[in-house]
Amino acid sequence: MNKRGHLWGIGVGPGDPGLLTLKALEALKEATVIMAPLASSREESAALQIVKEWVDETRLRVYGFPMTREPDSLAACWREVADEVAALVEKGEKVVFLTLGDALTYSTFNYILQQLAGKIPPECVTTIPGVTSFAAAAAAENFPMVCGEELLAVIPLPDGPLSRVRGLVRESDTVVFMKIGNRLKELMAFVNEEFPDRAAVFASRVGTPGQYLCRDLDRLPEGVDGYLSVLIVRKAGIKP
Ligand SMILES: C[S@@+](CC[C@H](N)C(=O)[O-])C[C@H]1O[C@@H](n2cnc3c(N)ncnc32)[C@H](O)[C@@H]1O
Fold first, then answer.
1. Helix (H) and strand (E) counts in the chain
2. Is residue 6 within 8 Å of 90, Cβ to Cβ?
3. 195 FRET partner, CA 20 to 30 A, in 27, 163, 228, 233?
4. In the chain, where are the structural domains located?
5. To which CATH superfamily is domain 6-128 assigned?
């Protein structure tokens, strides 16, 4: 009988391969199978782009996932991917599962872990954390994000009106908005209302060749979109 393999869920950071951890690199080199996510709306996997220097086609498996929030289709998709991962590990393969940014911060690997429960022993799974998009965005602008006892809220834009998160926004000192998509204008109107004395960083595609950074939200050019973007807003501004 084959010896069981292993699964590493690795966060590859948001764009710059230089932010990959040594552990992630070790796992990538050791892997016999590398699984990369591809949203059905895209031609390339953003996570794979970051590590492509270390990934040869023979070890690569790209899996598609639907761009839907419909829970049943999503659950079916994650179950299928998790079953494939479990079968590979059972066969003795060393599987790396790529995720963008950090492995457990709004990442697909969260769902895979939940679906894998009971299918492979916990000691066969290792999560390697990565740099989140918002950590890289703050760093790119040397932007002091939170200090002392200040409260940080990380908010993916909710379905429905942004007023749904107003309470949390008002209780926090700094807010990170993620998953902005096509709602950048709506978010700017909300931020102007809630944070008149703010300091901010808008960061799109941080760490990639298409990176765009902006500190002055009043001067955000018309054509900028919210895809693969984060907005960090510090309520009290930045004081010397
Ligand atoms: C599915 S979540 C993944 C989050 C990721 N695991 C992390 O740790 O940042 C996708 C969201 O992450 C943010 N994101 C990911 N990569 C980014 C990048 N290179 N630049 C700016 N935002 C990014 C965007 O808000 C995007 O909508």
1. 7, 10
2. no
3. 228
4. 6-128, 133-234
5. Tetrapyrrole methylase, N-terminal domain (3.40.1010.10)
Q: Are 103 and 109 in contact (CB under 8 A)?
A: yes
pLDDT tens by residue, 72-129: 888 899 999 999 999 999 999 999 999 999 999 999 999 999 999 999 999 999 999 9
* Size (the chain), residues: 240
37 pocket-lining for ligand 1 (C-beta < 6 Å): no
Q: Is 174 in the pocket of ligand 1 (CB under 6 A)?
A: no
SS3 state at 80: helix
Residues with Cβ within 8 Å of residue 40, at least 6 apart in sequence: 64, 65, 66, 67
Nearest partner of 109 among 11, 211, 6, 223, judged by Cα: 11
CB-facing half-sphere around the CA of 185: CA atoms within 13 A: 3
Question: Does the C-beta of 176 come closer than 6 Å to ligand 1?
Answer: no
What type of residue is 221?
A: P
- Determine the average pLDDT of the residues in 226-231: 96
Taking only the tens place, the pLDDT of each residue in 167-202 is 999 999 999 999 999 999 999 999 999 999 999 999
What would the CATH number be for the domain defined by 133-234?
Answer: 3.30.950.10
Cα–Cα distance, 219 to 213 (Å, whole number): 11
